[in-house]
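User: Before I run my own analysis I want an independent prediction to cross-check against. Here's the chain; please return only the C-alpha cells and, at the end, one sentence I can use as a sanity check.
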Amino acid sequence: QVQLVESGGGLVQDGDSLRLSCAASGRTFSIYHMGWFRQAPGKEREFVSSIKWSDSSTYYAESLKGRFTISRDNAKNTVYLQMNSLKPEDTAVYYCAATSSYRLQCLRGGPNCNNYWGQGTQVTVSS
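Assistant: C-alpha cells:
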C-alpha cells in the first residue's frame, strides 16, 4: 500500500502562485507514476499533470502547460505542483495520485490498476 498526503492548498487571489505538495509513504519503491488531478464543483475529476518516478518524464494537461510545473524530491518521496498565474477557473479540490503500473492511464484507476489517492486539498482562487 501507498499512502499519499497533500498539503499547500488555500485561498489566493487571481494571478497569485501556490505550491502543492504530496508526500508518499509505505511501499514507495513500487511507485511508477505520480501526479495530480483536480475536481471542480459539479465537474468530473480531470488530469492535471504527472511525473514518471524513474526518469522524471512529465506530462501536462494541454490547457495548463506553461502555468503549472510538476517536480519531485526523491529523498523526501514528495511530488510538488507549482501553480502560477492562477485563475478563478483553477478553483478545485486537487488530488494527488500514484500508481505502480507502467501504464500512465492507471494513475486514474481502472481494471488491473493499482492506484492510490490522497485526501485532496482545496485551492480557491478569488477574482
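Sanity check: The chain is about 0% helix and 50% strand.
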